[in-house]
Hints:
The radius of gyration is 18 Å and the shape is globular. 39% of the residues lie in helices and 17% in strands. The protein has one domain (5-221): Flavodoxin domain (Rossmann fold), CATH 3.40.50.360. With 222 residues, the chain is of the alpha/beta class.
Amino acid sequence: xxxxxxxxxxxxxxxxxxxxxxxxxxxxxxxxxxxxxxxxxxxxxxxxxxxxxxxxxxxxxxxxxxxxxxxxxxxxxxxxxxxxxxxxxxxxxxxxxxxxxxxxxxxxxxxxxxxxxxxxxxxxxxxxxxxxxxxxxxxxxxxxxxxxxxxxxxxxxxxxxxxxxxxxxxxxxxxxxxxxxxxxxxxxxxxxxxxxxxxxxxxxxxxxxxxxxxxxxxxxxx
Length: 222
């Protein structure tokens, strides 16, 4: 059977642990509704930190770093929905997720906001503290990229410390299920609108580039 939509989840954990388990739970929810679900584990890709070139604000083309980040970005662009999932490390998001947000945002997504109008959800995994901190950070990134944020009522925050603890947080997993279901509902609603209206852009995107200091000719290239 052909999938009705695709969701890509970015896993910012350094381990195959509780965050991965939560995404496996999310995958079952999606697949039960004929939605393809792909989890991208940042720990498994080649990803360097932002380099010393410092020309990000002036570049008219993608980042010059040679690693796997553009492959992941292209997967996100092709998807209908996106999930950012990360554990709390040091009272904030994991270093892997932070690096990816910086690299993808500055090097690839700022040119024309290709994630605009994609449906997005946030998952935070925490022992007991700071889940709201990384939820807020990842929400800010979703809004920056002009995505459509979908929630579950209560945040999709799962409490876990030791490996396997996430499976015991019934309320947290229930909120993840609700979030994924609502994401799918929104994706299908947008697809129906596109089909009935014949419009490619469900919502107007407007100015696709917020950078200042570039000439009119350079902005036309973008």
